[in-house]
């Protein structure tokens, strides 16, 4: 099976599982609207493929992955709110608050965060399992003030616009990197519930995710300039019109392209430090594919 | 030691522990502002006293209790937002968004929810512990769409104003009851980490909390009419001016008073079905004290 087919197979498993969590009623309707709005599902796919690399099955990491995706979706709903980035479109569709109003969107995000932890802690129907507690703990740390929320805070407020590449990287590492790291590490932990997994695999997963996250964010900033709105799923040029400081405004397009390739290589190199039972080929190809993505 | 002293002792333990979680910097400043704004700390005290009743120590349930209090605080911050209840005062102080703005208040709430789970899962520094996972799972369920967020949804939107006592009770049982239930059950679970605890104690804790929650909410509605703003910590008569359907508007003050006494008695009766190793005297007195509270 080629990379594209393998990606599609994993994504389809995620979509099918996500469909099972909520019903079309009350607040759950708004939660479903955003959770099932498509997207690349990179975080759950990473969890599942790291589980495979560590000798497990994709199934074993599926609910950990879905939990991470719920947490990611909540963060998108809240980021899009008028008091935050005030975005009307997400993945080419009206944002949650545009459809259901601010109050429901806030609550839908809040409930998705709780659902994320519930999903991870009940993964495999077995909540009294060390791995689930450990995974949930990693997720909580990544989601909180030391991770995603802290990154979003410094991004939208903090001391005003970030001015150096190092500052921007510190923010993005929290805002985007933390959750990617959690997804990858949780995938390895999912494998450890049925077999011994070396600690160096957790470290490798963490370092892969850190570099993948930075490459991903720089590519995102590039696509805001060189992308196509329909393909990208959000308006092009919004960073410039918002006078946002991005990797492109700081470094220029050419240096950005080098940085993306650089971080992508570091991500792939990080994989080599793990004593894997399975193959890391998909993870290497995924890094390459994200570096060249147009959406 | 009398009830008031015992309550004060437990509250002081909670205040001291809550002080240790965040520093006065960035987003954490806003989280601390709301978390350390006082309040009765009923939820952590309940967790600690149920742990004692089940034969444990208050210490053993302290971090579970602090996690529940963080979750409660996040819900207050988000409930106060302009897109929700739009309140300017909470516990006699300006609400979080009044001080830090909507964006930071939203993020502070989000980060407190994540911190709640992190705190429960790392309670006692021992995350790979069945009890912590079980407690976090109970908390997640209580916080989510089947519990607190669902209750808040039906309260602020849903099918418009609730019209019957049964509808109002269903909403309050989710909005307030779910988290009180979680606090009480988590206290019992905290005790079970070092000794055998009978399942009937968990059931008793759950039923006590359900009835306590309803008594608490009815008393709250009464205080909106008969209370004193300075003592109550929020404006009196806001339910009436918001044309909100409350227990008082539905049943009148006199019936409300009967209901409070009724539910309080049921809460105390529920304790009798548990095979406790410790005393439930404090829990009984706490129920009585909440029934008569003026704030």
TrEMBL record, chains A, B:
GO MF, one annotated term? (2E,6E)-farnesyl diphosphate synthase activity
Q: What is catalyzed by this enzyme?
A: isopentenyl diphosphate + (2E)-geranyl diphosphate = (2E,6E)-farnesyl diphosphate + diphosphate
> What CDD domains does its record include?
Trans_IPPS_HT
Instruction: Give the record's GO biological process terms.
Output: terpenoid biosynthetic process
| PROSITE patterns (UniProt xref) | POLYPRENYL_SYNTHASE_1 (PS00723), POLYPRENYL_SYNTHASE_2 (PS00444)
**Record key words, sorted:** Isoprene biosynthesis, Magnesium, Metal-binding, Plasmid, Transferase
Q: Which family does it belong to?
A: Belongs to the FPP/GGPP synthase family.
- This one is known as Farnesyl diphosphate synthase
Q: Which gene encodes it?
A: ispA
């Amino acid at each position: 099976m080629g990379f594209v087919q393998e990606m599609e197979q994993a994504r389809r498993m995620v979509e099918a599982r996500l469909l099972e969590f909520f019903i079309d009623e009350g607040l759950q309707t708004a939660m479903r609207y955003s959770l099932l709005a498509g997207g690349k599902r990179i975080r759950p796919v990473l969890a599942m493929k790291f589980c495979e690399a560590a000798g497990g099955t994709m199934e074993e990491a599926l609910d950990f992955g879905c939990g991470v995706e719920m947490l990611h979706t909540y963060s998108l709903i809240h980021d899009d709110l008028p008091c935050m980035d005030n975005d009307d479109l997400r993945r080419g569709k009206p944002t949650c608050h545009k459809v259901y109003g601010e109050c429901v969107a806030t609550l839908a995000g809040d409930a998705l965060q709780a659902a994320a932890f519930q999903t991870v802690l009940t993964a495999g129907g077995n909540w009294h399992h060390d791995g689930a507690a450990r995974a949930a703990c990693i997720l909580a740390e990544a989601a909180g003030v030391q991770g995603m929320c802290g990154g979003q805070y410094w991004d939208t407020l903090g001391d005003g616009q970030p001015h150096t590449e190092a500052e921007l990287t510190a923010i993005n590492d929290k805002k985007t990197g933390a959750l990617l790291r959690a997804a990858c590490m949780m995938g390895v932990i999912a494998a450890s519930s049925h077999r011994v997994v070396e600690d160096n695999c957790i470290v490798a997963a963490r370092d892969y995710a850190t570099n993948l996250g930075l490459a991903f964010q720089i590519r995102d900033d590039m696509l805001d300039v060189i992308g196509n709105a329909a393909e990208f799923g959000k308006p092009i040029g919004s960073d410039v019109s918002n006078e946002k400081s991005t990797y492109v405004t700081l470094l220029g397009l050419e240096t950005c392209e080098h940085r993306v390739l650089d971080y992508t290589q570091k991500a792939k190199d990080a994989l080599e430090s793990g004593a894997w039972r399975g193959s890391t080929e998909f993870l290497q190809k995924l890094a390459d594919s994200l570096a060249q993505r147009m959406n």
